[in-house]
Design brief:
The protein is an all-alpha fold. Helices cover about 60% and strands about 0% of the residues. The chain is built from 12 helices and 2 strands; from the N terminus they run E-E-H-H-H-H-H-H-H-H-H-H-H-H.
Length: about 325
Amino acid sequence: MWVFAVPLFSWSESYAGLWLPVKVTVGALAFWWLLRLSRPRVISLWPLERPGGPSLLATLGPDRTGPAHDLARRFLDLRRRGRTSDSQSQSAPDGLEKDFGKAVRWPPGSATRLPRDVSPIHLALLTGPKTGGSPSALALRLGLMTTFLGVIPMVYLWWRDLLIAGGPANLSWEAGLLYPSYLIWDLLFWFVPGYLLGLLWRELPGRTGPVKSLPISGAYALGAGAHLAMAALLDLGGAAETTLRALLLFAVLTMAGLIVDVRTIRDVIPPWSRVGRHLLEVYRLESIPAQATFLLAQLAAVLAIIQFFRGQGGEPQYPSIDPFNMPRPQG
């Protein structure tokens, strides 16, 4: 049902005087399609290693965040002891292999094991930070986080539209009635994707936060691409700002997913350990080529945003933050 939250990403669209919800329709269908296509990559839907065992998601209640973090701490301690014995060319401590077998059992006290290729660290990342708790609490936190991260681009886009309209001094009293609705829409634009990311956190594909955010930012990008295609076909303006919003949404959601992972890892590692080292290991970015590949998409988005801010993106012919396609108030 939350697929239908995608229409909150944009409102009415008018093409040559006709109302056609292209961005909304394509975005909703793309979101549904991406979720269906990536379903085999949703680790919470993988069954536990037991014949006829339940899925991992069925064992993740609101009160399982603490036990999942405890299991991850135990796993990290056992792995550290095992690596220490290997580096010193010593035999493994007595009972270490047996303890490792217990460290991958889930739920606690049962004989079932985590799915193959899912470690207790991935389980902790799946449950989220301890301050999140239930999916609804994590959704609210992520919605507020993405709203906070979106304040700077929101202020810039507002100021840019005001300058196009001739500056704040040239606005009429009608702007006092119109711009509050623009503010509400813009806050929803940044809040809803983050809320959706938190609410579906355990049911999105991938093991890490940045990967989990891709279906949401990708759905909006496909909807924006359909809008750009229609705008190019009918020779309309506003294409540059639509592209900018898609890039900003990708950057904000990726950053929000990264922040959630950092907070989760900080909860499960010892206070004297470095978060960055564990984060690179979980993201499988120990090598320099892997780190470069991971940063490439972010770098491309940042460069595109900087290029737009330097004035190379063109100016829209109408304000894209106007949800009802109403004309700009005259001074």
